[in-house]
Amino acid sequence: MSKSLLLLLPALILLISPLAAAQSDGFITSIRVYPGESDAFIVVGWDLAYYTMCPGTGSEEKLCYCSLDPTFFRRYVFYFNGSNVAYVPQLSNVDVEIGFSHSNSSWRMAYMFGEIKPGLPEANESNYYEIHPGKACVRPLGNLSYLFRPYHGIPGRVEGDTLVFSNGSQTYRVPLENLKGHVLLKSDYDNFRAVFLKNGVLFYVPFYEGTTDYGYPNVIIHGRGNCSPDNLMVENVDKLNPIVLFFYDGDELKTFPLYRITYNDSPDLRPEVLINMTLDFSQCEREICGNGIILVILLLAFAFVLWTSRRH
Question: Membrane-spanning residues where (predicted)?
Fold first, then answer.
């Protein structure tokens, strides 16, 4: 082998290995749900992170006992309309924090921090919006100095061969057999969180973190909690199950694979969105509504009375 080829060999290895130029030690991903009456907005967090202060432990122990310090942030937004899930590109792949609130059949959204803003009308002048998913439109409302908080969800419990969610007035029993093949870790059954909607229960695993210490293509995945074998796995990244959102109405279980963990032509692990249906927003047309309509009707009635009285 010539000297020139030997000199080029390290550079070729850097180009070939997806992890050679990795810019993180691992990732943290989360799901936050903002419920309405029968619909919900879902915000997926994806943070690339480094280990900060950490003793010289092995790869698996490091993930369990050492802190990952996020340095790269992305948010992805989905909308559940009561029966299906849509991806919202205009609110996704941004580095801002996003929150939603539902009140009196109306949605509000606000975002703060970050530099990559949502692709919404007047995003440079407003961080606060009224949202109408059914009309696929938004209305800028100016600026808000705080974020809406997500609903933390009700934990489930395994009873026999079912996963049970109860909020005191409603109880859903999901057959465990239906969940096989849709979870990442055995501990997911203990970590599920649920949001009760008008026509069923929306449930999900709120948190995972992982590292690539085993080297490409293997990934170590860890759930919230201890470092037991049920809460930790080493797997080829191409064989990982997607991250799934579930909906159960008491009879039918619907599964919505939101994203999968992949390299996707990147040296760092990233989420690949799997939802094909999208929801795109335009600006709502201006309309007279509510008290405005009532005022116009009263003025017209008053004018008509004056006109008829003058004729007599």
Answer: 292-309
Cα separation values, 108 from 75, 100, 103, 138, 269, Å: 18, 6, 8, 9, 32
Q: Which helix (H) or strand (E) holds 48?
A: strand 40-51
Nearest to 111 by CA among 81, 91, 87: 91
List the structure tokens of 205. Answer: 């695993």
SS (H, E, C) 115-155: CCCCCCCCCCCCCEEEEECCCCEEEEEECCCCCCCCECCEE
**Range list of β-strands (E), 205-297:** 207-211, 218-223, 232-236, 243-248, 253-262, 270-273, 282-283
The span from the CA of 220 to the CA of 255, in Å, is 24
Work out the percent of the chain whose per-residue pLDDT is above 90.
60
* DSSP 3-state of 225: coil
- What is the model's pTM? 0.84
What is the per-residue pLDDT across 99-131, written as a single tens digit (0 to 9) for each? Answer: 999 988 889 999 999 899 999 988 788 999 999
Query: Is residue 134 within 8 Å of 36, Cβ to Cβ?
Result: no
Beta strands in 3-39 (DSSP E): 26-35
The answer to whether 256 touches 10, Cβ cutoff 8 Å, is no
- List the structure tokens of 196: 């009760």
43, 76 Cβ separation under 8 angstroms: yes
Q: Could you report the per-residue pLDDT of 267-281, keeping only the tens digit for each? A: 889 999 999 999 999
Q: What per-residue confidence (pLDDT) applies to 65? A: 75
Which of 5-9, 143-147, 253-257 reaches the highest mean pLDDT?
Answer: 253-257
Q: Pairing state of beta strands 282-283 and 232-236?
A: unpaired
Please state, in angstroms and as integers, the Cα–Cα distance from residue 48 to each residue in 11, 27, 77, 209, 301, following that order.
25, 4, 18, 10, 63
